[in-house]
Specification:
With about 200 residues, this protein is α/β, with parallel strands linked by helices. It is built from 7 helices and 9 strands. It is globular, with a radius of gyration of 16 Å.
Length: about 200
């Protein structure tokens, strides 16, 4: 019996390690369609355009909103982020499992549109660890760091019910987090009543 394609939504606070986990999943050859988010924020030194994000201007982003080209979009910490709709639809039509990375606000939007998606909340083992990771990035001012920490605390307490699963991303144990995500995908494929995603 053929299984239906899954839409897996990975979310979590800033600094949880979402990009690192997805990069590792790609390295290990996990057979998923990885949807690249569109962003207006400046590109970081270690990032590659069209790999980590599609970096575009605010003007082009506005055009994409007006053209209804996003599955979801949001302003996060002063920058715009959006999940392009076309590659998601194309992958679903091919029967391909898809993974998208969004902030918690984006996950809430997708939950309303596609409640049958699989929602995974990625978190660090503690708030102290999260703060340490954000400081190591050296990309946030003291104000931004405080804002991201406060937001992370609120997301963990108020938004957790949006999600189906929680995965703890421990320092130097990224393969464990990846294994847990793969186990979730396997479990979902074994459901008696499969999730039906249509866009």
């Amino acid at each position: 019996m053929p299984t239906r394609p899954l839409l897996i939504v990975i979310s979590g606070p800033s600094g949880a390690g979402k990009d690192a986990v997805l990069t590792r999943m790609k390295e290990l050859g996990c057979p998923l369609e990885y949807i690249v988010t569109v962003a207006t924020r400046p590109q970081r030194a270690e990032e590659r355009n069209n790999v980590n994000y599609h970096f575009i201007s605010r003007e082009r982003f506005q055009e994409m909103i007006e053209g209804n080209e996003f599955l979801e979009w949001a302003n996060v910490y002063g920058n715009w982020y959006g999940v392009p709709k076309k590659p998601v639809k194309q992958a679903l039509d091919k029967g391909q499992d898809i993974i998208v990375k969004v902030d918690v606000q984006g996950a809430a939007t997708i939950k309303k549109l596609l409640p049958q998606a699989v929602f995974i909340f990625l978190i660090p083992p503690s708030m102290e660890e999260l703060i340490s990771r954000l400081k190591q990035r050296q990309t946030e001012s003291a104000f931004d760091l405080a804002l991201r920490t406060k937001t992370a605390e609120e997301e963990e307490t108020k938004q957790l019910s949006l999600f189906d699963y929680i995965v703890v991303n421990k320092r130097d144990k990224i393969d464990l987090a990846v294994s847990e995500i793969k186990a979730i995908i396997t479990a979902e494929k074994c459901r008696v009543t499969p999730r039906e995603i249509s866009l």
